[in-house]
Amino acid sequence: MSEIENGQGLQARRAAITDLGDALRLLIEQATATEAPTADLLRAAALIRQAGAPLGERARGRFETASADDLLGGVRLYNPVTGGGSAFAPPLEIHRDGDVAVGSCTLGRAFEGPPSFAHGGVSAMLLDQMLGYACGMSGHPGMTVQLDTAYRQPVPLYTPLRLTARVAAVDRRVITATGTIATAEDPASILVRATGTFVALLPEQAQRLFGPVMGRGR
Ligand SMILES: CCCCCCCCCC(=O)SCCNC(=O)CCNC(=O)[C@H](O)C(C)(C)COP(=O)(O)OP(=O)(O)OC[C@H]1O[C@@H](n2cnc3c(N)ncnc32)[C@H](O)[C@@H]1OP(=O)(O)O
Questions:
Q1: In-domain check, residue 104
Q2: Using CB atoms within 10 A as the burial measure, which of 4, 68, 81, 175 is most buried?
Q3: pTM
């Protein structure tokens, strides 16, 4: 019997994945902000390679989903924006408030573009996720075909952020969604705005793109 065939095992694995994610995010912050002596950098690199070795002993292939994920239930622990297990994710937390998706996160040094501010690509990544979530939440899931971002003011690092997204229009397969980034302290001052166009997949497109992952088209 696999380690997670009962619900308790699954919860324990998800908690462990998030714990590992927290440790990795701390490591990335420390490694990005460090001014430690060069010898300490080399020592840390050797220790980190050693620590990571057991993780590589059993690894998924490209079309294998994580055993702790639930794709249809929307659990994606390694999503690079929201996943608690992703070293790369801030992670962004999103919840529903009526017909608006509301997100929160704080960006550390690893997301820096202009000194002390977030990289523009990171803002676009956060907004793509927010808009995609709003589409799914409204019952119109789709893939991004266009994302337009307007950078009005730089997004500060180490500052709690508030993001919003909502669906503005649905025209057959084409969904338009809009979103914003502001600081939590001053949510009325919009730093970045985005408009995204999403397209609902036709069944044959879903099969072509995701059949191998869903185990129906290898
Ligand atoms: C709760 C879950 C939260 C999940 C959040 C996830 C957020 C992240 C989302 C992503 O990042 S998705 C990854 C990035 N996106 C992609 O990789 C998509 C790549 N694009 C494709 O694979 C194809 O474009 C796609 C399969 C989606 C659609 O192919 P089609 O050949 O069906 O598109 P087509 O060009 O025929 O356009 C279909 C409709 O969209 C319209 N369209 C396409 N591009 C457009 C555009 N740029 N602006 C406006 N409309 C557009 C097009 O006019 C047409 O409208 P009509 O049906 O009314 O005729």
A1: yes
A2: 175
A3: 0.94
Distance 142 CA to ligand 1 centre (A): 7
The answer to whether residue 143 sits within a structural domain is yes
- Residue ranges making up the domain that contains 181: 93-207
**How far away, in angstroms, is 200 Cα from ligand 1 center?**
7
Instruction: Give the three-state DSSP class for 107.
Output: coil
Residue 169 CA to ligand 1 center (angstroms) comes to: 15
- Encode pLDDT of 62-83 as tens digits: 999 999 999 989 999 999 999 9
Tell me if 182 is assigned to some domain. yes
* pLDDT higher than threshold 90 for residue 8: no
Cα–Cα distance for residue pair 144/132, rounded to 1 Å: 7
pLDDT tens digits along 129-176: 999 999 999 999 999 999 999 999 999 999 999 999 999 999 999 999
Q: What is the ipTM of this complex?
A: 0.93
Question: CATH code at 148?
Answer: 3.10.129.10
What are the C-alpha distances in Å from 50 to residues 46, 53, 56, 62? Answer: 6, 5, 11, 24
CB within 8 Å of 191: residues ≥ 6 apart: 123, 151, 152, 153, 154, 155, 180, 181, 182, 183
Domain count, the chain: 1
Ligand 1 site: residues with CB under 6 angstroms? Answer: 74, 128-129, 132-133, 136, 143-146, 172-174, 197, 199, 201, 205
pLDDT at 218: 40
